[in-house]
Structures are given as C-alpha cells and as structure tokens.
Amino acid sequence: MKSSASSSRLRLWEAALFLAFGLTLTAGVWASASEAALADQMLRLHVVANSDSEADQARKLLVRDAVLARASRLLEGVSDRRGAEEALAPHLDELAQAGAEALARTGTADPVRVTLDDQWFPTKEYDGFSLPAGQYRALRVTIGEGRGRNWWCVVFPPLCLASVSEKSVESAAEGVLSQDQVALITGRDGGYVLKFRLIEWWQELTGGK
Fold it and tell me: By C-alpha distance, which of 188, 25, 200 is closest to 120?
C-alpha cells in the first residue's frame, strides 16, 4: 500500500512538473514572438548627449527635434521598417548635418554622428504607450563625446514626433502595427507591465540580451 501511495504521489509531482514546464515554454514562446514581432516593425531612435550637464541635455533635445523633423520628411510614404531603413540609410550625413546645425544655433560645435545599427533597448514608458526591452534596429545619434544620458524612442512608425495620446498612437501605427500590438503597447489589452516583465524574464532566461 505504501509503495502504491508513494508511486501515486510521484506521478502527481511528475505531472505538475511537466505542466509547469509546458506553461513556462508556452509563455516564453509568446514573449519571444511578441518582442520579435514588434522589433521587426519598428525603427527605434537613440540620441546620446555629449554629457550630463544641464546645457548638453537641453542641446540633446534640440538635436533630437532637428533629426526627427528631417527624418519625417524622408519617411513620407514609407509603409514598413525595412523601407524606413532604406529611406534613411543614404541620408545619414544629412541627418547629422541637421543635428549639427541645431547645435550651431546654440554656439556649440560638437560633432554629430548618425548610424543605423542593432541595439539593446530597455523597457521604456512614453506618453501614451510603452515598449518592451529587446534588440531593435535603431537610428543612433551621438553628440560630441556621447557620454551623457540617452533619449530613447521610435522614429518609425512615427510614435515620438509629438507628445502622443492613445488615439494618436493608433493613428501613427496604422498600417504598420496590428491591433493586438497597439493594444499591447498602449495597455488596452489589460496592461503591459506583467507582459513586459514576462518578456524580460524570458530574455534573461535564454540569454537573449
């Protein structure tokens, strides 16, 4: 009798472990697929200030605005992330020049470098939406020595051209992100916090960072 009861308890533990493993794997697959799908649709923006001084941080925002303004014109009619990258790639010097001109108007001659590369982004909350941590293709703008605090957002779709509301997020993402993706980043599907933490946990578990 004892052997039978012990065997039964063992089978219950095995079933529980298999169930837990299955749930973990399912959640992980969802997390990985969700982040990868978003990353495939977005071209992020990463602006790095010369330093953390108050003046350099203010100049960083002027450079950001100048680069976004020039980029928005280059991206007119673009419908996907790869198209956005192809539209911007031949004009990186032009974008850098726009940033340098914004600096020059403040009496600063720091160089501005603009590149396209793959970067790791932390989870970020913006006005009206949030994005999970992960590897994204990015337009990187480095000012001077590039030792100051960052400004992170999205250049395509144009989610960061202004202080956005949920409605403007949907408008900016129309034709690029699915309704489920918009619901995820705006929290309309029940909140992004737990889901984004799940994405981060799976990335840490699998060494995705």
Answer: 200
118 backbone dihedrals φ, ψ, rounded to 5°: -90, 135
The label of the residue with tokens 């203010």 reads 58
Whole-prediction pTM:
0.74
User: Beta-carbon neighbour count of residue 74 at 10 Å?
Assistant: 17
- Per residue in 144-165, pLDDT (tens digit) is 999 999 998 899 998 876 544 4
Q: Which helix (DSSP H) or strand (DSSP E) does residue 195 occupy? A: helix 193-206
How many C-alpha atoms does 203 have within 13 Å on its Cβ side? 22
One-letter amino acid for residue 134 of the chain: G
Percent of the chain that is helix, strand, coil (3-state, to 5): 55, 20, 25
How far, in Å, CA of 197 to CA of 183, rounded?
A: 16
